[in-house]
Write a structure and sequence with these properties.
Strand content: 15-25%
Distance between the termini: 72 Å
Shape: elongated
Number of strands: 15
Order of helices and strands: HEEEEHEHHEEHHHEEEEEHHEHHEEHH
Mean pLDDT: 88
Largest sheet: 7 strands, antiparallel
Radius of gyration: 25 Å
Low-confidence stretches: 258-262, 355-361
């Protein structure tokens, strides 16, 4: 790494991220005024620097905007700014062409153009990349590029606030149904990216969607899922589950252990018990009598019905004594989607109900 390259990058890191790195051939992470930033210096002959700023809010358009070249270009939509469109490729998910230009406001375009003077740039749904060679730039030029990177993130996230719900959720009325669901429960709604949040039966609730993955570089934002469209839900319980109850889908290992006598706690519902691994933590309960009673009271018929319906719909769900997390596929039919969300939001109240007595109790 050249001395000039080293000095300029060290100064950048110290001034903006507050770090004092001794070695600059590794990825460095920090935050500048609330924006997460990652710097990836290179010590090879190109002496290059990659700067990545992650968009805290992000968008859900499959957005890809980048410095055009003879090897890479796209013109799926136009911004109406001929000077900008002449040097940047513009792509998005099919059907998102009407919304995509509104994300590239004059402030966003200005920030991207400023970075392109000193290097190349890419804007995605979840982050902004800038590439340059610090040994070809003055300290002022490198600082300006970094500030433009942050400006691009802020301006694009601000523009996202004006976007409508993602097309996939609007097409059949799913977003409208979810907004009605939210109004009935006094939940907050973010239309883009689409999300609901608030309190249900004293529990903290958050639901979010990701309809497009083509425009993401930072990986899967949803809990436990592959790179496919879907939703996730998190519920933080106001009071912990009794007995330290936990429930998760049964794995092949869980089933094998059950066959040789090392099984988990059972509810008495054979089909349900095969599908789920259930446990509880109770002191001074060697034969698990108390734990079994607590499990069966909480995983009563109503609760089991909800968990079974969610699993049948492809929702992967687990819960412990403090919270519930679930991820499901993208469902756009309103009635089916509301049924899924309702099963999640009503699960905790169903578990509070006392199970009817039966022979196994």
């Amino acid at each position: 790494m050249s001395a000039i390259h080293h000095a300029t990058v060290v100064s950048l890191v110290q001034r903006f991220l507050g770090l004092s790195p001794a070695i600059l051939d590794l990825s460095l992470t920090g935050a500048f005024e609330g924006v997460p930033v990652q710097l990836q210096p290179s010590g090879n002959n190109s002496a290059s620097l990659t700067m990545v700023a992650h968009r805290p809010r992000g968008s859900d358009l499959g957005l890809r905007v980048f410095s055009s070249s003879m090897f890479r270009s796209a013109e799926r939509f136009a911004t109406g700014d001929d000077a900008f469109d002449g040097i940047f490729g513009r792509d998005c998910a099919p059907g998102c062409e009407p919304e995509a230009p509104s994300l590239l406001t004059s402030d966003v375009r200005a920030a991207l153009r400023a970075m392109s003077i000193a290097g190349s740039v890419e804007l995605y749904d979840d982050c902004v990349f800038a590439y340059c060679q610090p040994n070809m730039l003055s300290q002022e030029e490198l600082d300006s590029m970094f500030r433009s990177l942050i400006a691009a993130v802020r301006a694009s996230d601000e523009a996202t606030l004006a976007l409508d719900a993602p097309l996939a959720l609007r097409s059949l009325g799913a977003s409208a149904a979810l907004e009605a669901f939210a109004r009935e429960r006094a939940l907050s709604v973010a239309r883009h990216p689409f999300a609901l949040s608030g309190t249900i039966d004293h529990d903290q609730f958050a639901l979010r969607f990701c309809c497009q993955y083509e425009g993401r570089r930072g990986g899967d934002p949803l809990h436990g899922g592959a790179r496919s469209p879907g939703f996730d839900v998190r519920v933080r319980f106001a009071e912990p589950l009794r007995g330290g109850l936990f429930v998760r889908p049964a794995s092949m290992l869980d089933r094998a252990q059950a066959l040789v006598g090392f099984g988990d706690i059972e509810t008495g519902d054979a089909g349900f018990d095969r599908a789920w691994t259930i446990g509880a933590r109770v002191e001074n309960d060697p034969d698990r009598t108390i734990a079994t009673q607590l499990v069966r009271e909480q995983l009563n018929e109503r609760a089991r019905a909800r968990l079974t319906a969610l699993a049948a719909a492809g929702v992967v769900l687990s819960l412990d004594d403090r919270s519930l997390v679930a991820r499901g596929p993208l469902v756009i039919e309103p009635r089916a989607l509301i049924e899924l969300v309702s099963n999640v939001t009503s699960l905790r109240s169903a578990m509070r109900a006392e199970a009817p007595r039966s022979a196994y109790r």
